[in-house]
Design a protein that fits this description.
The chain is of the alpha/beta class. The chain has one domain: NAD(P)-binding Rossmann-like Domain (Rossmann fold), CATH 3.40.50. Helices cover 49% and strands 14% of the residues. A seven-stranded parallel β-sheet has the order 3-2-1-4-5-6-7, sandwiched between helices. The N and C termini lie far apart (42 Å).
Length: 245
C-alpha cells in the first residue's frame, strides 16, 4: 500500500498512477484541486487498484499527524510513503507574494510537513519491520542558483535532503529513506515559462529536453521496489544529466 501527498497534478499524480500500475493500492492527498484528485482516484480504480482520497492541510502539523494515522489505518499499514506535496509559489496569486511570505509557505509544506509525516510514518514502519519513504528535493540545491527562486528552493529543498540522510540513519535497517531530486520538469509552471526558461531547461540537461513527471515517477517506483533494496539515505538526481555552465 502506498501514500502520495500532493497528488492533484504533475509529479504527484504521475507517481500515484505509476505505483498503481505496479500493483499498489494508493492513498492520495490533496487540498485545493479536489476535482483533479477525484479523477485520479477514478483512474487508479480503472487500473484495478483501490484508492482513497484524504484532503489534508499539510501546513498544519496536527492535521499531518491525523492524516498519517488515517492513512495507516486504511489498509492496516503502509509500505511506501511519498512526500511529493509542495507549496506553489510560482503560479497564480502566490507568484506576487513578497519573498518572506513565499519562503514561509514553502517551509511549512515542503519542509515541516515532510519532517512530521516522515517521522510519524517512519516510527510505525520501523516497528513493523519494513517500509520505504521518498522525499522531494531539488537537483540544484547543493550548488545553488542565482535569483529569488534559487534562494528559496535551495533553502527548503536543501533542508529536505539533509533530513532525508539523517532519517535514513534513524530508521535503518528496517526502513529505507531516499530523496528524489528532479531538475527541470515540465509541470504547470513550465507550461507558461518564458522562452528564456524553455531554452535554459533544454540546454542544462545533457539529454537536451525538459524532464516529464513520468520520468520522476519511474525513478520513484524503482526506489520503492525490492530492486532498490540496497539503496537508502541517497539523493537521486533526475535531470537528464546536469550540464554545468
Amino acid at each position: 500500500m502506498a501514500v502520495v501527498t500532493g497528488a492533484s497534478g504533475g509529479i504527484g499524480r504521475a507517481i500515484a498512477l505509476e505505483l498503481a500500475r505496479n500493483g499498489a493500492n494508493v492513498v492520495v492527498q490533496g487540498r485545493q484541486r479536489r476535482e483533479s484528485v477525484e479523477s485520479l482516484v477514478a483512474e487508479i480504480q480503472r487500473l484495478g487498484r483501490e484508492a482513497l482520497f484524504l484532503s489534508t492541510d499539510l501546513s498544519d502539523a496536527k492535521a499531518c499527524q491525523t492524516f498519517a494515522a488515517a492513512a495507516w489505518e486504511w489498509k492496516t499499514g503502509i509500505d511506501i510513503w511519498a512526500n511529493i506535496a509542495g507549496a506553489d509559489v510560482l503560479t497564480g496569486g502566490a507568484a506576487n507574494w513578497p519573498f518572506e511570505q513565499k519562503l514561509a509557505a514553502l517551509w511549512q509544506v515542503d519542509v515541516l510537513a515532510t519532517v512530521v509525516l516522515s517521522r510519524a510514518v517512519g516510527e510505525r514502519m520501523k516497528a513493523r519491520g519494513h517500509g520505504v519513504i521518498l522525499n522531494m528535493g531539488w537537483d540544484q540545491a547543493a550548488q545553488g542558483m542565482a535569483g529569488e527562486s534559487g534562494e528559496m528552493f535551495a533553502t527548503v529543498k536543501g533542508a529536505v535532503m539533509a533530513f532525508t540522510r539523517s532519517l535514513a540513519q534513524s530508521l535503518a535497517p528496517e526502513v529505507r529513506v531516499n530523496c528524489l531530486a528532479p531538475g527541470w520538469i515540465r509541470t504547470a509552471w513550465a507550461e507558461q515559462a518564458s522562452e528564456y526558461w524553455q531554452e535554459r531547461a533544454a540546454r542544462q540537461s545533457l539529454r537536451g529536453r525538459w524532464g516529464t513527471p513520468e520520468d520522476v515517477a519511474h525513478a520513484a517506483v524503482f526506489l520503492a521496489s525490492p530492486a532498490a533494496d540496497f539503496i537508502t539515505g541517497q539523493i537521486i538526481p533526475i535531470n537528464g544529466g546536469f550540464r554545468y555552465e
